[in-house]
Design a protein that fits this description.
binds guanosine-5'-triphosphate; 3 domains; two-stranded antiparallel sheet; 9-stranded mixed beta sheet; alpha/beta; Rossmann fold; binds magnesium ion; 15 strands
Length: 416
């Protein structure tokens, strides 16, 4: 296809007379087609010049003009096609909203008093796509992230809480709820027993310990096991892996899947992986996760490791307060996800720091201080045993006794 810039067939026989172009107020030569004034030239040729041409020239010119018209039409077609594509793209963008629209959660938000199209879009864009996400998030955060006003936000939170009947309930109700809590098997019976029958959902579990104690290995194993059916100790769900240290290894997933006779391709497909390059990125990935959980059937979130980036970015005593505040907010983002999605388990790993001043007892404590200790629901300390063996110690759990379990890290993953 010829481009407009290539069209210049000056010197047509029988032409060549100069004339003044009224359209562009410049001297032109008859028979010439001006690339800069294609429309005007086309018009001139169309209306005035063709009449003056001899029969043969007329035909030549006509075919020339036709060609130009075709080219122009093709160009226009291209433009129309492009516009249509862009519109389609836009449509598919808004489709997400439309698809979500059909989603019950969004429908429920729409029914809240005072929620119009604009408010709904702002909420969804900021990741608040269910009543739960609005009800459980502090209004200040909703306000900052969605750009809604404080009065509107306060009303939305109140209305969402009322809809979800969040308030006091009897201990019996809580008991009923906890009886039905789901668990993920670790692959080791002993380790499962330490957790009271597998790692439970609806909470944040922290594994901390020295290097090579198996934190990352447990994280990998749980990404496989969460995909198992309920009867085999899984949740029939997918995993989201936030890797802050670059230690995620799909090879290990393949080995662990094969150890369980699972199709590793399917298992790999169902692990959504995000590499966090700094603490801000890590925080952002978790904020974005809120929108993925329902859509991708995510039942397990791994953050390996929780503190690494914060530790290297916030250096010096002067930054300590800000660091702790940021970690606290990040942990609360994770905790909130488990409130919003009760069948979600969050696993964070944590390093330990040496305490050279401690002579008796355990000389290592988890990094992150009290903020992390209080933020996680269940805390387990890992240490090395003989060879492949590792020892897990329950440090803190609201309902589990302190105890220890020995498990092994083998080629096929975590076992007894
Ligand atoms: P840091 O991230 O460095 O703090 O350590 P971590 O606690 O995350 O250690 P990780 O879970 O990566 O454990 C690494 C250890 O797992 C290795 O040193 C091995 O002992 C063991 N391991 C990893 N892959 C295999 C394997 O294929 N076979 C066996 N038998 N052991 C393995
Ligand atoms: Mg690790």
């Amino acid at each position: 296809m010829a481009k407009a810039s290539e069209i210049n067939n000056g010197g047509q026989s029988g032409n060549g007379e100069p004339y003044f172009c009224k359209e562009c107020k410049r001297n032109h030569t008859k028979g010439k087609i001006y690339k800069d004034h294609l429309k005007f030239a086309r018009f001139e040729i169309d209306k005035n010049e063709i009449e003056e041409k001899s029969e043969s020239n007329e035909k030549e010119l006509e075919s020339e003009v036709e060609e130009i018209f075709e080219d122009l039409e093709e160009d226009e077609d291209d433009i129309i096609e492009l516009n249509e594509m862009e519109e389609e793209e836009l449509d598919s963008d808004s489709n997400e909203v439309i698809i979500n629209d059909a989603n019950m959660c969004v429908e429920a938000i729409k029914k809240l008093p005072g929620v119009g199209e604009a408010t709904l879009k702002k909420l969804i864009k900021a990741g608040f796509s269910s009543l739960e996400s609005i009800a459980y998030t502090p209004p200040k955060i909703i306000q900052n992230e969605s750009g809604l006003g404080d009065k509107t936000t306060a009303k939305l939170v109140k209305a969402s809480m009322a809809q979800l009947k969040i308030g006091f309930k009897s201990a019996e109700d809580v008991w009923e709820y906890r009886k039905n809590i789901s668990r993920i098997t670790t692959g080791s019976q002993e380790l499962d027993d330490l957790f009271g029958g597998g790692i439970e959902t609806g909470c944040v579990v922290e594994f901390f310990g020295e290097f090579r104690t198996g934190k990352t290995q447990i994280a990998h194993q749980l990404c496989v096991n969460v995909q198992l059916p309920y009867e085999d100790g899984g949740l029939n769900g997918n995993a989201l892996y936030i890797d802050t240290e670059g230690t995620f290894r799909p090879e290990r997933i393949v080995q662990m899947s094969e150890g369980l006779d699972l199709d590793y391709k399917k298992i790999l497909k169902n692990i959504i992986f995000g590499r966090a390059y700094n603490s801000d990125h890590q925080i952002l990935l978790i904020k974005e996760a809120a929108n993925l959980i329902k859509e991708k059937n995510i039942k397990l979130i791994i953050v390996d490791s929780l503190i690494g980036h914060f530790r290297s970015e916030y250096i010096g005593r002067g930054t300590l307060a800000t660091r702790q505040q940021t970690i606290n907010a990040h942990l609360h983002d994770l905790l909130r996800l488990t409130d919003i999605f009760p069948e979600l388990c969050v696993i964070v790993t944590n390093q330990v720091q040496s305490k050279p001043d401690v002579f008796y007892g355990n000389p290592t404590v988890a990094t992150g201080g009290n903020i992390v200790a209080h933020g996680s629901t269940i805390r387990v300390y890992l240490r090395k045993g003989k060879g492949e063996q590792r020892v897990a110690k329950m440090i803190d759990a609201p309902h589990l006794p302190e105890g220890e379990a020995v498990f092994s890290i083998t080629e096929n993953g975590i076992t007894d």
